[in-house]
Design brief:
The chain is mainly alpha-helical. It has 13 helices and two strands, in the order ααααβααβααααααα.
Length: 262
Amino acid sequence: MVDTMTATLAELADEILADGIIDADEVQRIRERIFADGQIDREEADFLFGLNDAVSGKANDPGWKALFVEAISKHVLEDEASPNVIDDQEAEYLMSKIQADGQVDEIELALLVNLMSMAQATSSALQAFVLSALKTSILADGVIDANEVGMLKAVIFGTGSGGGTGVDRDEADLLFELNDAVSGQTNDSSWTEFFVDALGKHLLEDENSPGAVDAAEAEWLISHMEADAKLDDVEKALLSYLKSHASAMPDSLKFKIELWNA
């Protein structure tokens, strides 16, 4: 066995990957090595991404996921150049590393979710990348479970997302796309509550017409409601919320709500 603290990272990686998985003892060895000086530098981050690509989808110890997310988050959020902010260069680095093996695995997705929830700001390119990765992951099995609702909350309400703690148009569009794709399936009950809460924020907590649904918002909302030629219970719950909480809305939306019996 090589010495954990004196071996090169390449030597340590070769030994860890000899059996194709990362076990609990190896998680501890990796932790001791990379956190020895209290910082995670770029070489160490590269080392972690390389390990993860090699063992992706394997029966690794659960501690590997926790370590990977913690360490890479520390690397990009605790640097001197842009503390607590993921700048353009850091975003490009993350996306290139995550895309290197042609997939966004469960551990990399957990990293992205954590970064969106913790960062004070991120690049628009990374925001779009995270939404796309989250959408692909959620729709893989055609239903939305409680864990996926939790990830959506962390990303969309996170300070690093496009709308900050609010909900921007890209995020709102994503929620409608997800709902259309899983409509009628056995989704977790928290999906409806989150959908209504997030879309309610998008429509009623904006700067242009706070508390009200304006004409442009009504047109956008109607187009999404009619996109799949059906109105499901989740969308009806949103309309019911808007009826009781909006201080005003255009006649066009009032007419549609009455027509849809929502």
